[in-house]
Amino acid sequence: MDVSAEAKRVMVQALSKLYSSRSQRGGLRLHRSLLLTLVMKSARDIYHSARAACESQELQESQELQGKAAEPPSDPPPPLEKPQQQEEQEEASMEEEVSSPEVSLEVPQRCTQPELDQENRSPARADRHSRKRRGKTATEPDFLPCKRAKMDTGEVLRILQDASLRSNAAGNCARGTDTLPSANTHMPRTVATC
Amino acid sequence: MEEEIDNRKINNSFLRDHNYATEADIISTVEFNSTGELLATGDKGGRVVVFQREQESKNQPHRRGEYNVYSTFQSHEPEFDYLKSLEIEEKINKIRWLPQQNAAYFLLSTNDKTVKLWKISERDKRPEGYNLKDEDGRIRDPSTITSLRVPVLRPMDLMVEATPRRVFSNGHTYHINSISVNSDYETYMSTDDLRINLWHLEITNRSFNIVDIKPTNMEELTEVITAAEFHPHQCNTFVYSSSKGSIRLCDMRSAALCDNHSKFFEEPEDPSNRSFFSEIISSISDVKFSHSGRYLMTRDYLTVKVWDLNMESKPLETYQVHDYLRSKLCSLYENDCIFDKFECVWNGSDSVIMTGSYNNFFRMFDRNTKRDVTLEASRENSKPRAILKPRKVCVGGKRRKDEISVDSLDFSKKILHTTWHPSENIIAVAATNNLYIFQDKVN
């Protein structure tokens, strides 16, 4: 889990730096914000790839276990096969891209036990359509600071947009389409800032 | 390369009896003028301090001309943009000298938003013997005046005065990072994150936009301009560098708007070096033409590269400044050092290049002999007239006696700004709020 832990850390730090640069003297620095956004995006992509690879690994393991316990191994059910291959391809391409010491990706990637990994999962899918407020423990991984107000993607976008409008063309406040490159909807929803 | 230290270790802080450095005194730019007679420094507090080299005296021929303070003035003040509710820092980002055309000196200084042209002139005579006022300036009672006299110019103590002659404002929405004077001596350009404007030195209420990389939709922004410079001889040519690690050369004769480049210099990324921080460390922080105009030098976080203008596919030479930091990028990202913007500089003959590093180290690379040296700018380690001792960073394993290990480096002591005399081996190095001037050994 080195990769995803590293990626998480980088993402969280990028967000906190972006957030604190709002109050910096002299206004938002476009170059720095752009670099932070790029880092955040690549960390996010790597994090998700790592997570997906991990999950497919788990799936494979559990299937192998089942297969061994029951019959001589038969092919995994067709719906699962394709995503697995995709994950493996992603993992392979990610490996090519990311091979610096900090981001060491070993094959096959061994995940920590599924039970412990609960906290690192994205919010439970069953909850998606529920309109009830989610409890803290269920949705907030403990690696993130919980004292400050949470910021979701919408908030991040709004901050970036505010900042870009401020440093944008003089007086033309009607230019509503201008936003900085956004962390789009794939961002885990419980990311918070320091 | 051996260097003798001049005894100038000029502390820019006017709070001389305090040991701490006030942030306003942090030097943010240094620049020799075209003859090397003057050296200008700008700081975070918006002040400019100009040093002048004293004339070499025949009595002490072994004592090379030293640099003394010539003029100090407040170039920029903090401002507030009421429309955007933004404070505009007074920090001087760049100073560029104009070539000397008369007895006065002219320089351009810029903060994030406004460029100013300053005239620095000497006054060593004053008129005396006015009829209508006396020597103190008080108006004389006309009834006491019985005769007329002609005022005469009498010598006075030298006074150096700086006056703002032009203020070029409201040209930039984003933060100005460079200015460059054209070889036609009539125009100059100012560069912010997304645009480059061309100004005439005489005209302050109008500028021409020559490069605009702002996308229609800011969400599509992928790169910004980090530095730009005019060619030293061809007044139609300039280059600008980007945060993606590329350099574009543009010719103003081809179109009014130089969004399309004439040449594009980029080295393909080495996939084995890919990391989270690849984009950050490939961002170019400085670009400089060689004096000959044949080569370009670029600085990114870990390397300095020399490019031949005739070869766009890859640099001619690549020099590792502090490759031992490659494995420390994560920590450098955490403490923000990875965003530091180092400058680089050529010597007068384009044979040696220099750039700064951490721990008050700076590096010189001899392009001909391929030798390089690491030197340190610090009070403790250098005595007047002593030869600077080369330093070495130990990368791992056994540390030799004089070496310093990577983990002991002080990352708060960084040399971002350096300048080299146009013809002699004299360098000025800014270490936070201290200015060091080093001269070559005299034989």
TrEMBL record, chain A:
Which intervals carry biased composition (Basic and acidic residues)? 118-127
Acidic residues: which segments have biased composition? 87-99
The record's listing under InterPro entries reads: IER
Q: Name one Pfam family in it.
A: IER
* Positions with biased composition (Low complexity): 55-66, 100-109
Give positions of region: Disordered: 55-142
Which superkingdom is the protein from?
Eukaryota
> Which family does this protein fall into?
Belongs to the IER family.
Could you tell me which PANTHER family the record lists for this protein? Answer: IMMEDIATE EARLY RESPONSE GENE
Q: What is this protein called?
A: Immediate early response gene 2 protein
Query: Which source organism does the UniProt entry give?
Result: Astyanax mexicanus
From TrEMBL, chain B:
- Keyword line: Repeat, WD repeat
Q: What are the protein's GO molecular function terms?
A: protein phosphatase regulator activity
- Which InterPro entries does the UniProt record give? PP2A_PR55, PP2A_PR55_CS, WD40/YVTN_repeat-like_dom_sf, WD40_repeat_dom_sf, WD40_rpt
One of the record's GO cellular component terms? protein phosphatase type 2A complex
Coiled coil regions, renumbered to chain: none
Question: Cross-referenced SUPFAM superfamilies, in alphabetical order?
Answer: WD40 repeat-like
Q: How does it assemble?
A: PP2A consists of a common heterodimeric core enzyme, composed of a 36 kDa catalytic subunit (subunit C) and a 65 kDa constant regulatory subunit (PR65 or subunit A), that associates with a variety of regulatory subunits.
What family is this?
Belongs to the phosphatase 2A regulatory subunit B family.
Q: What is this protein called?
A: Serine/threonine-protein phosphatase 2A 55 kDa regulatory subunit B
